[in-house]
Amino acid sequence: MAASEAGVLQRMFETGEFSDLTIGTSTKTFKVHKAVVCQKSPFFRAACTRDFLEAKTGHINLEENESVIYASLQHLYELQIDMKIVKPLQDDQVLRREFVELVRLSVAADKVSTKARTPPRSEHKSPYSV
């Protein structure tokens, strides 16, 4: 991507200017652009184009926490992910908490992934099955 395009996406992400969709967590609402998030995420595309309440209201509530959604949106806007959720390790409790946050980030990334989904193993048909 050209440097000027990256700058435009970053400015759009940071300012929310001309946004046409909001994504809410329990602590923050993000102003985003359907042209960006729907183009790169089947999850957001479905939420905005199918007969869901979110398509009508222009608002999507997510259960993930603010830092996880922030990192996921940075990815969709092709920005370097700011790992604010990864803090210096102080003790085992901090390590456990940070591990849980990273797992949540991974789950959120899977939710908004741009890759084609592979069915669970139980749905794979073996050429040798009867």
Automatic annotation (TrEMBL):
Domain of life: Eukaryota
Protein's recorded name: Uncharacterized protein
Organism of origin: Vermiconidia calcicola
